[in-house]
Write a structure and sequence with these properties.
The protein has 344 residues and is mostly beta strands. It has one domain: Tachylectin-2, Chain A (5 Propeller). Helix content is 3%, strand content 38%. The chain is built from two helices and 21 strands. The strands form five sheets. Strands 5, 6, 7, 8 and 9 form a five-stranded antiparallel sheet that branches. A five-stranded mixed sheet has the order 14-18-17-16-15, with no helix packed on it. It has a four-stranded antiparallel sheet with strand order 1-2-3-4, with no helix packed on it. β1 and β2 form a beta hairpin. It is globular, with a radius of gyration of 18 Å. The chain starts with a helix and ends in a 15-residue tail after the last strand. The chain binds beta-L-arabinofuranose (FUB). Beta-L-arabinofuranose binds next to β1 and β15.
């Protein structure tokens, strides 16, 4: 929701109308990536802080430094903060801005994937390892080779292959990699290098992971989202085009890629027949929340599906102080996600 509208919100009334409440209130957390490991829910969120950086369209105010893992026995149960899982000071290659992470498990080892800005001002994606789903995680000395941009989401397919989906425009820098080489510019602008409105939108990226999950097995590819006429969504189609916050889940044998439209504040999804796509735009998942960003994960628990998302209602609209929430997500008989309105 745009900042100018937030000033007019009656937050007491809004919290009464909210379909769900923050899972934890003692810290601000956002960008929830939820997974079920050994029958329990683990949420890997960003840990929002107020570092004093002014709001800008590069997201400089998202100055997060560490990660905490939240666990729950059920979606309705108590959310437990398991303390510090990883701090930027322990990541050799990273300077700042520990943005939206994700995690996965393989053979009893847990892998935390996270974007951060290096000392050169470039976002890359790192990986840290633990023998526990809640950490602490030990980071690799280098970022993942050939990684770039933000918002990694790692999906394990039924055949045991792992894929990373990632990318984000504006402050997420995806547009600066269009030539395959990072484009430097001074002063930095979130809008330079973007396609024109009538050109195909920038695509999120997908890469199969190597068996050690520490590197890509292949060069990242474009994940193309098609419209109803089999044409790629256009950059000017801001209500539908990809901005950031990739997530992949599988439902009834189909691949559901969901994402945020950023400056239009929707969570949308597209359906495909394989992990690479192409995907066809299928609709919205979540209407705008209070706060500029919208970011989520979709996770099955005991036969029901849940949307983990965030909003800024607890902080009364402060964009970079967000809270994670959960609500049930349902499909119609044709596999379409029923759109969720976060406030009744
Ligand atoms: O939390 C920082 C950034 O805001 C995330 O990486 C984006 O997806 C947006 O939620």
């Amino acid at each position: 929701m745009p900042e100018d509208l937030i000033n007019h919100i009656d937050f007491e009334n809004l919290n009464q109308r909210a379909i769900s409440q923050p899972l934890v209130k003692h810290i601000y957390i956002a960008d929830p990536s939820a997974h079920v490991f050994n029958g329990k829910i683990y949420i890997y969120p960003s840990h929002d802080i107020d570092a004093g950086d002014a709001f800008d369209d590069l997201g400089s105010h998202f100055a997060m430094e560490d990660y905490h893992v939240i666990s729950m026995d059920t979606p309705q149960g108590e959310a437990v903060d398991n303390g510090l899982a990883l701090h930027v000071k322990d990541v050799l290659w990273a300077e700042k801005q520990m943005w939206a992470p994700d995690a996965t498990e393989k053979d009893g080892t847990y892998y935390l994937f996270f974007p951060a800005k290096g000392y050169d001002g470039i976002f890359r994606i790192g990986v840290a390892i633990s023998d526990s789903p809640v950490g602490p995680f030990t980071p690799q000395a280098e970022a993942i080779k050939d990684s770039f941009s933000i918002d990694p989401a790692v999906f394990k397919d039924d055949d045991g292959s792992y894929y990373m989906y990632f990318g984000g425009i504006w402050g997420g820098q995806l547009q600066r990699w269009r030539t395959g080489i990072f484009q430097f510019e001074q002063p930095e602008s979130p809008f330079a290098f973007l396609p024109e409105a009538n050109e195909p939108a920038l695509c999120p990226k997908v890469a199969k992971m190597a068996s050690n999950l520490l590197e890509f097995a292949e060069a990242p590819r474009d994940l193309v989202i098609l419209d109803e006429n089999n044409q790629p969504l256009l950059q000017g189609d801001t209500n539908r085009r990809f901005f950031e916050a990739s997530w992949m889940h599988k439902y009834n044998g189909k691949y559901y890629f969901s994402y945020s439209t950023g400056d239009t504040h929707f969570l949308c999804y597209a359906i495909g027949n394989n992990p690479y796509g192409p995907f066809r735009y299928a609709g919205r998942v979540l209407e705008p929340v209070v706060g500029w960003t919208s970011h989520h994960s979709i996770c099955e628990f005991n036969g029901k599906w849940y949307l983990f998302y965030h909003d800024s209602s607890l902080s009364k609209g402060i964009t970079h102080l967000r809270s994670v929430k959960v609500t049930e997500l349902t499909y119609d008989k044709d596999g379409r996600i029923q759109v969720i309105n976060p406030y009744l």
